[in-house]
Amino acid sequence: MRKRPALFGAGIALCLSSALAFAGESAASLTAAGIPANCAPFAAKVSAAEGNFGTTNQFGCLGAFQFCPGTFERYYSGSAQSFLNDPQAQVAAWTRYQQNSWSQVQKNGMGSLVGQQVCSGGRCATIDQSAILMACQFGCGKNGKLANFAASGDCDARNVKDGNGVSVCSYLVRGAGYDASCFTGDASTTCTPTPSGPGDFPTSIGIAANPPSSSDASIIVRATDV
Amino acid sequence: MRPAQFGTLAWMVVASAIANPSHAAEASFTFKASYRNVATDPDGVWTGDAFAGGPVTIHEYQLRTASGEFLISQIWNDDCAAATCPTRLLRVEPGGRRAVLVDDMMRQIIPPNDPRFAALSATGPQAAFARSPFRLSDDGKTLLNGDFRFDLGEGRQ
């Protein structure tokens, strides 16, 4: 039996602390690398929990979407370093990965989750396509966590949680409300509220991306007023 | 001892305790084999639907302890997520009978025999995970896979 020295992890801890500092790529940088603008907020949401274009984590997972070795092998034929140096290749690989994930979702009957309510960590959401794709980070296979949730509807069951005890439901909630039509091929099922008055512009999609027209606005601040 | 020396020593003790509270007595699995681009599992751990998407890659690790022999098999197939793949821990009994103790999605290993990952597995924080992606807790009740933990079940044939 091979024993590991107690001080072994000190260096790893320091490296982990830097790995935890990932901020992810912005929607703008992902768009520049090839993600359509309408799907860039979803891509940025995923990347925020993963890494940057040049990131390698402690498990050997690469880039803005953290392609781990098995996934990397399937979606990219070059070296790890060339992948890290190529944002366009990362975006192209991730787009194919998302498209294949959606095919898995449909093949395994998990598309029926769309429209259902899910609650996790004190937050609730209506499951849509982006929620499902986010949850596919737990796997979209017929024996995966999302399939287990689709079968049981129980967010607290052991078989819907990963090895850290994180429920797939937390990812369903986190991913809801984004346009993922670039990957699903369907028109967006995202429910974007229609502004009807001051303060009604949704914060989840960013007011800068959806500015009200001047005729809708109650208060107009011009550059000369600042 | 001066305050500065004491502070440095205390930091080292605390840092190592936080970073690695239980590794001292864990047993690491060692790499056994990889089967690339196969349509069936030479060791019979995976069958049927696991191959529905076409040829797969299977990586195996093993551990021999006083309490028995263990085999881990990870399959890289359509059911993988970006970071995890279906993985099984089996106890191998002296007569060759095997019981599945854990069947779950686990972190993808860093292949020790793939030149594209040679740099990752040789240096840096990835090296530790590349060497020991799977460990068994000292009490033999928990499988450790990076930051993931899995309780060992009673086993099914």
Structure explained in plain terms:
- The complex is a heterodimer of chains A (226) and B (157).
- By secondary structure, chain A is mainly α.
- In chain A, strand 1 and strand 2 form a beta hairpin.
- Chain A is built from ten helices and two strands.
- Residues 1-21 and 191-211 of chain A have low confidence and may be disordered.
- In chain A, helix 7 (129-135) runs antiparallel to helix 9 (168-175).
- Chain A is globular and about 40 Å long.
- Chain B is an alpha+beta fold.
- Chain B has one domain (3-151).
- Helix content of chain B is 18%, strand content 38%.
- Chain B contains three helices and nine strands, in the order αββββββααβββ.
- Chain B has helices spanning 3-19, 118-122, 126-131, and strands at 27-28, 30-38, 56-65, 68-76, 84-92, 98-107, 135-136, 142-145, 148-151.
- In chain B, the strands form two sheets. Chain B has a five-stranded antiparallel β-sheet, with no helix packed on it.
- Chain B is globular.
- Chains A and B meet through helix 1 and helix 4 of A and helix 1, strand 1, strand 5, strand 6 and helix 2 of B.
Largest interface: A-B, 49 and 55 residues
**N→C terminal distance of chain A:** 70 Å
SSE string of chain B? HEEEEEEHHEEE
What fraction of the residues of chain B are assigned to beta strands by DSSP? 35-45%
The oligomeric status of these chains comes to heterodimer
| Radius of gyration from the alpha-carbon trace of chain A, in angstroms | 20 Å
Number of strands of chain B: 9
Provide the helix percentage of chain A: 25-40%
Biggest beta-sheet profile of chain B: 5 strands, antiparallel
How many domains of chain B? The number is 1
Q: Unreliable segments of chain B (pLDDT under 50, ≥5 consecutive)?
A: 1-22
- Helix content, binned percent of chain B: 10-25%
